[in-house]
Design brief:
With about 60 residues, the chain is mostly beta strands. The chain has one helix and five strands. The chain has a single domain, classed as Ubiquitin-like (UB roll) (Roll). A five-stranded mixed β-sheet has the order 2-1-5-3-4, with no helix packed on it.
Protein backbone atom coordinates (compact mmCIF):
# COMPACT_ATOMS: atom_id res chain seq x y z
CA UNK A 1 0.00 0.00 0.00
CA UNK A 2 1.01 3.60 -0.44
CA UNK A 3 0.67 6.24 2.26
CA UNK A 4 1.68 9.85 2.63
CA UNK A 5 4.18 9.93 5.52
CA UNK A 6 5.30 13.42 6.52
CA UNK A 7 4.32 14.66 3.07
CA UNK A 8 6.17 11.96 1.07
CA UNK A 9 4.56 8.99 -0.66
CA UNK A 10 5.88 5.77 0.88
CA UNK A 11 5.11 2.11 0.21
CA UNK A 12 4.64 -0.40 3.03
CA UNK A 13 3.06 -3.77 3.76
CA UNK A 14 2.03 -2.63 7.27
CA UNK A 15 -1.67 -2.98 8.02
CA UNK A 16 -1.69 -1.03 11.32
CA UNK A 17 0.10 2.00 12.74
CA UNK A 18 1.92 -0.27 15.21
CA UNK A 19 3.29 -2.42 12.37
CA UNK A 20 4.36 0.67 10.42
CA UNK A 21 6.24 2.17 13.38
CA UNK A 22 8.08 -1.14 13.91
CA UNK A 23 8.80 -1.51 10.18
CA UNK A 24 10.32 1.97 10.08
CA UNK A 25 12.40 1.25 13.20
CA UNK A 26 11.13 4.31 15.05
CA UNK A 27 11.38 4.82 18.81
CA UNK A 28 7.78 4.68 19.99
CA UNK A 29 8.63 6.24 23.38
CA UNK A 30 8.97 9.74 21.92
CA UNK A 31 6.71 9.38 18.88
CA UNK A 32 3.39 11.09 18.18
CA UNK A 33 1.32 9.79 15.27
CA UNK A 34 -1.30 11.79 13.40
CA UNK A 35 -3.45 9.60 11.13
CA UNK A 36 -5.74 11.38 8.67
CA UNK A 37 -5.66 14.59 10.77
CA UNK A 38 -6.31 12.85 14.11
CA UNK A 39 -3.76 12.21 16.87
CA UNK A 40 -3.77 8.48 17.67
CA UNK A 41 -2.85 7.36 21.19
CA UNK A 42 -0.07 4.81 21.34
CA UNK A 43 -2.33 2.18 22.92
CA UNK A 44 -4.59 2.47 19.85
CA UNK A 45 -1.82 1.87 17.30
CA UNK A 46 -2.31 -1.93 17.07
CA UNK A 47 -6.05 -1.48 16.39
CA UNK A 48 -5.77 1.43 13.94
CA UNK A 49 -5.96 -0.01 10.43
CA UNK A 50 -4.16 1.63 7.54
CA UNK A 51 -5.67 1.99 4.09
CA UNK A 52 -4.31 2.94 0.70
CA UNK A 53 -3.83 6.70 0.49
CA UNK A 54 -3.91 7.42 4.23
CA UNK A 55 -2.04 10.49 5.45
CA UNK A 56 0.33 10.14 8.39
CA UNK A 57 2.52 12.58 10.26
CA UNK A 58 5.15 10.95 12.48
CA UNK A 59 6.67 13.37 14.96
CA UNK A 60 9.56 12.64 17.33
CA UNK A 61 10.00 14.87 20.34
CA UNK A 62 13.55 15.48 21.49
CA UNK A 63 14.43 17.12 24.78
CA UNK A 64 17.41 19.32 25.28
CA UNK A 65 18.57 22.61 26.47
Amino acid sequence: MQFSINGKIETSNASTIDELVKELGLDSNSLVVEHNDQIIRQEQWPATKLQEGDGLELLNFVGGG
